[in-house]
Amino acid sequence: MSRFPVSTEKERDLLDRMERLGIFESDIDEQFVRSGGHGGQNVNKTATCVVLTHRPSGLQVKCREERSQGLNRFLARRILTDRIEAAKLGRASAERSRIEKIRRQKRRRSRRAKLKMLADKRIHSHIKSERRRTEDA
Questions:
Q1: Is 3 among the domain residues?
Q2: CATH at 56
Q3: How many domains is the chain partitioned into structurally?
Q4: b vs e for 4-42, b when ≥16 Cβ sit within 10 Å of the residue's Cβ?
Q5: Are both 125 and 70 inside the same structural domain?
Q6: Which residue(s) pair with 63 in the sheet?
Q7: Are residues 43 and 80 in the same domain?
Q8: Nearest to residue 62, comparing CAs of 78, 76, 48, 74?
Q9: In 3D, which of 32, 85, 28, 21 has the Cα closest to residue 56?
Q10: Same-domain status, 66 and 127
Q11: Same structural domain, 82 and 105
């Protein structure tokens, strides 16, 4: 019987990763708190949010993505494993690089860059308008 409400293959993959990285269940403190947010009355009344603390590294992960506590337990362990792996390998995690990419995209353009972009748009618009058929033809 599996411990999490996911396929046995996904559970096995997670447990293998944890074993490879030296993460033991005995090193993890698990707490359950009320989630709030989306999910309606279910998440407001039941403790579906999972908080994991990995004692050796001091990392703490909170997961409240799903309405089910069991699924949040699995997802929290996966997030914890990702973070520990990123810390051990000394590289920026995929999540951090994704966040940085979004931040760069949202950053306000400088005045000069904005004027250049608008000028390029005007030129492109003019080129396209020249391609249109005229009424005389």
A1: no
A2: 3.30.160.20
A3: 2
A4: bebeeeebeebbebbeeeebeeeebeeeeeebeeeeeee
A5: no
A6: 50
A7: yes
A8: 76
A9: 28
A10: no
A11: no
* Same structural domain, 21 and 85: yes
Pairwise CA distance, residues 17 & 19, whole Å: 5
pLDDT digits (tens, 9 = 90+) for 37-95: 777 787 788 899 999 999 999 999 999 998 889 999 999 999 999 889 888 876 666 77
Tokens of 91: 């590289």
Percent of the chain with pLDDT over 90: 61
137 occurs within a structural domain: no
Encoding tokens for residue 38?
Answer: 């989306």
Rounded to whole angstroms, the Cα distance separating 122 from 118 reads 6
Residues 6+ away with beta carbon under 8 Å from 2: 8, 11
